[in-house]
Design a protein that fits this description.
It is a single chain. This protein has about 260 residues and is α/β, with parallel strands linked by helices. The protein is built from 8 helices and 8 strands; from the N terminus they run E-H-E-E-H-E-H-E-H-E-H-H-H-H-E-E. Helix 1 crosses helix 3.
């Protein structure tokens, strides 16, 4: 049975595993925990696109036992002892790289790299048993939206092979804007555009997303695009409808998650 694809917010650093007296991350954590119930069946493996790994061309982790990369700074000591001992999937990494190569898209396999926090933090909430093989996919350093949409299209065959494609990032990612009420309205304007674009039929959606910089408050919402580009891969892997399945004001900014059928 074909798996849908998702764009999931991954929160801030190891936020879900820290004291949260104001409940900042409660709603987002509940959304992530609900992910298994949104799937048509248990996937065979998970391919996660993370904006925290930029490479020349695309890359995939080929490590059969990927370690964790604690690529966040200034957090409590216990957050650097978090574990997520999911197995890797070298065969899936080779299959994904081959699909991109056939499509004329540069792809390599990194046999040593581990999983960064854009992968293990949301997965530890959504799939806490860590019993599904996981491969991480990078974003291309050019941050070209059309290239990422094309990469998603090339990878779409994996959906029929039991692979769940997850893209993680943040629909708003401007570090200066978090906690600042002046960013609420601009983030909401971009979120409304993104929600409308995601719902378009596949080819129209691709054209609109490829021109995301022309959206309202686009560069205010994403001074750099690495946290948005994973969404392009998830959207590109689907010709079906897209929908916003999570939306919440977090730290004075609108944050959303999307599903593509």
């Amino acid at each position: 049975m074909q798996q849908p694809t998702f764009f999931l917010p991954h929160g801030g650093g190891p936020c879900f595993f820290m004291d949260d007296p104001r409940g900042t991350w409660t709603g987002m954590a509940a959304f992530l925990r609900a992910l298994p119930a949104m799937l048509p069946e248990r996937p065979k493996a998970v391919l996660v696109v993370s904006g925290h790994w930029e490479t020349n061309g695309f890359a995939f982790t080929g490590n059969p036992a990927p370690p964790l990369l604690y690529d966040y700074y200034g957090f409590p000591d216990h957050t650097y002892a978090l574990r997520y001992d999911a197995p890797g999937a070298p065969v899936l990494a080779k299959r994904a790289a081959a699909l991109l190569t056939v499509a004329g898209i540069s792809a390599t396999i990194d046999p040593a790299r581990g999983l960064d926090h854009g992968v293990f933090v949301p997965l530890k909430v959504a799939l806490p048993d860590a019993d599904l093989p996981v491969v991480e996919m990078s974003v291309d350093r050019t941050l070209d939206p059309a290239l990422h949409l094309a990469a998603g299209e090339a990878l779409s065959a994996l959906r029929d092979e039991g692979v769940l494609i997850l893209a993680t990032g943040m629909s708003f990612h401007n570090m200066r804007g978090y906690g600042d009420p002046r960013f609420t309205a601009p983030s909401a304007a971009f979120d409304a555009w993104l929600t409308q674009a995601a719902a378009r039929p596949g080819p129209i959606r691709a054209r609109e997303l490829a021109q995301w910089e022309g959206a309202p408050a686009a560069r205010l919402s994403h001074p750099a695009a690495e946290h948005l580009l994973p969404l392009m891969v998830a959207a590109g892997a689907s010709n079906g409808g897209g929908e916003r399945i999570y939306s919440e004001k977090v730290m004075e900014t609108m944050i959303s998650g999307f599903r593509f059928n």
